[in-house]
């Protein structure tokens, strides 16, 4: 997939606007992933209405606040904005993991022709090898939301990496910001019950059992 952008720069939509300008960086961000090419502009009312839906779709699949492991999904915004200022304004509220081409890069027009984009907004879904999976997934995303990703993943035969490594089994990444607090509360409650049961039983070794770490 990185070959589609070979010789070009992709910019990450974060405050530092990190540039991916080497084959290794592009491969790390794009290989073995489904790639969405989002053609749009902030001047298009339909794009303005669709952008929050696409943002929520992407976040719910890639933000570890919602999922245990981020989906193998990348999104590249192919701007159709008339000026760089319009492009920057449109991207301002979009996810930091989104990528985009520099405004002056002519590859944007080449991609528009290559994938026969006829209307805006348009979302072209590409398999990891670069083949087109869906010409325009705009309606599908609006209708099914994140559920359509599993269909794409199966159709594209993407290697599923969403598993726990052995070292993570004892303490997997939290599903939400409150999960560590819930775990700690459970451990404290469990220890308290053990101590209370030991006092009530009063048998040999009760004191040492109450003090054991969990």
Main sheet record: 7 strands, mixed
Range of strand content: 5-15%
Q: What proportion of the residues is helical, as a percent range?
A: 40-55%
Number of separate strands: 7
Radius of gyration: 24 Å
Give the overall pLDDT as a whole number: 82
Structural class: alpha/beta
What are the secondary-structure elements, in order, as H or E?
EEHEHEHEHEEHHHH
Strand order of the largest sheet: 2-1-5-4-3-6-7
Counted by DSSP, the helix tally is 8
Structural shape: globular
Poorly predicted regions: 162-188, 202-214
Distance between the termini: 47 Å
Question: Brief overview, please?
Answer:
The protein is an alpha/beta fold and 214 residues long. Helix content is 41%, strand content 14%. The model is unreliable at 162-188 and 202-214 (pLDDT under 50).
């Amino acid at each position: 997939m990185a070959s589609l952008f070979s010789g070009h720069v992709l910019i990450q939509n974060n405050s530092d606007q990190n540039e991916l300008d080497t084959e290794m960086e592009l491969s790390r961000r794009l290989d073995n992933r489904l790639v969405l090419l989002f053609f749009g502009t902030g001047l298009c009312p339909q794009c303005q209405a669709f952008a929050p839906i696409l943002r929520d779709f992407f976040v719910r699949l890639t933000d570890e606040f919602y999922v245990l492991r981020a989906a193998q999904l990348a999104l590249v915004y192919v701007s159709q904005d008339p000026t760089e200022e319009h492009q920057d304004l449109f991207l301002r509220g979009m996810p930091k993991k989104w990528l985009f081409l520099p405004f002056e890069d002519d590859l944007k027009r080449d991609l528009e022709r290559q994938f026969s984009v006829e209307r805006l907004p348009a979302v072209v879904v590409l398999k990891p090898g670069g083949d087109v999976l869906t010409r325009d997934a705009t309606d599908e995303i609006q209708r099914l939301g994140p559920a359509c990703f599993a269909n794409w993943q199966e159709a594209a035969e993407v290697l599923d990496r969403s598993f726990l490594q052995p070292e993570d089994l004892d303490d997997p990444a939290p599903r939400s910001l409150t999960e560590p607090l819930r775990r700690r509360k459970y451990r404290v409650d469990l220890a308290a019950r053990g101590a209370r049961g030991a006092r009530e039983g009063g048998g040999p070794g009760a004191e040492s059992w109450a003090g054991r770490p969990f």
